[in-house]
Amino acid sequence: MEQAGPTLFQTLINQRGWQDYEVFKKRYEQAAEQLAELEGPRSIATATIEKRQFFRYAHGEVRSPQTVARRILEFMFPGIPATRLLGPVPTQPGPSPQHPAAEGRIAVERSEYGLEDVVLAAANESAQFAAKAESSNVGPHTLEQLEADIRRIVRSYPNRPIGPLFREVRDLRNRAFELLEGRQPPRYTCDLYIGAGVLCGVLANASFDLGRYDAAETQARTAFLLGELAGHNGLRSWVRGLQALIAYWDGRPADAVRLAESGTDFTPESGTAQIRLESIKARAYGQLNRNSDALAALQAADHLRDGLVDEDELPGGMMAFPVEKQLFYASSTHLWLAGSQHLSDAEARAHEAVEMFQAAPLEQQRLGEMSLARMDLAMARLGRGDIDGAAIQIHAVLAVSARRRTESVDRRIGHFNRQLALHPGAGSAAAIGLREVIIADQQRTPHELPPGGSR
């Protein structure tokens, strides 16, 4: 006999969005596995449903399923006997005052199993939300791979050409953004914010190295926002330092001091970010000719270094602030302060920094930073009349610049060349030859930001 009207099974799978066979089959098999684990026997875990059987259930052609199927169906639809599930949807007849008890019973059945079942609909909605919340586009493996890629990038950054690296970082940042736009547990969201923030910070640094200060500041603002969303002091402190550094190189030392001061509001649990802030502040104070403030900042950086115990919270590499980098920041500060004693201090610190940079394995050398330390050393030697000693450093810088050019190094070379032209020994053969080498280097085509890479 044909089934009159839809079965309760058909009604419920339509409500839950399971009316497609493949969707229902997946739910059925998942229920079988859960039932096997909770109640046993384990053999139930392999149960499945054929397509023809699925449609027979929907059309009311089966009223009494086999034992295993019955248990699975009743597990999938709690509280509903399988025979009722595969039968017609209960209907409520018109009022019958002669049979109030029957009317009440039918109303209950309608409430429990009918189309207008608010309770069941609410349960279905909760179940659907739980399924969505449980599903995630991010898992431990995805995060582990993202973190590994970030570590590789920040550690190799100081030794690699900027252009190709920029494209790689941009692609990885876009991947992190895509993951954030998906669905993941809150603990993964925080990790993604940190990862995306670090990558925006790397892009800010790369934009800065390419001479695009506007793009660098935009990237840095986004990196700081992501650090805010993650509540990560290490990232916020580091980004404030980068923003201060951009201001320093852009000829805005007062802004550099303000930004560095702002970064001290975000003290990380460990690491070198605060040492970096004090060192940047010292150079900015030097540029402002505020000698006592500059020396106080250098002293504060030394004090923080003495108290350093743990490694950085951030992934190291370009985001770390090692001793040698602190030394050449100090040498730059002393060059700004001028005078014979400061010139001597600048030379000593720059020389120590260069030696420490050179001591690293070739593939780990921080080429841009070592070049800047060499430029400090060259300026200090030029200041005391040692043109030959300065030339040794300039030639070394130009050799590195041929494979890894940055705007800050180019600017320092240009400044050195102008100072050399004004030097009392500018007419010597050594000075003339050095200036010719520098001019030839300056005529080379500088690196440009990759198309569209300013975003």
Overview of the structural elements:
By secondary structure, this protein is mostly helical. Among the domains are: 8-134, no CATH class; 138-231, no CATH class. Helix content is 69%, strand content 0%. The protein is built from 21 helices and no strands. The protein has helices at 8-16, 21-38, 51-58, 67-76, 82-85, 100-113, 118-134, 140-156, 162-181, 186-209, 213-230, 233-249, 253-263, 273-287, 291-306, 323-337, 340-359, 367-383, 387-401, 407-422, 429-442. The longest helix has 24 residues, at 186-209. The radius of gyration is 35 Å and the shape is elongated. The two termini are 68 Å apart.
Summed up:
The chain is an all-alpha fold.
The chain-level structural class is mainly alpha
Span between N and C termini? 68 Å
Major beta-sheet overview: none
Count of DSSP E strands? 0
Shape: elongated
Give me some keywords for this one:
single chain, 455 residues, mainly alpha, 21 helices, disordered C terminus
Could you outline the blueprint of secondary structure elements for this entry?
Elements: H1 8-16, H2 21-38, H3 51-58, H4 67-76, H5 82-85, H6 100-113, H7 118-134, H8 140-156, H9 162-181, H10 186-209, H11 213-230, H12 233-249, H13 253-263, H14 273-287, H15 291-306, H16 323-337, H17 340-359, H18 367-383, H19 387-401, H20 407-422, H21 429-442
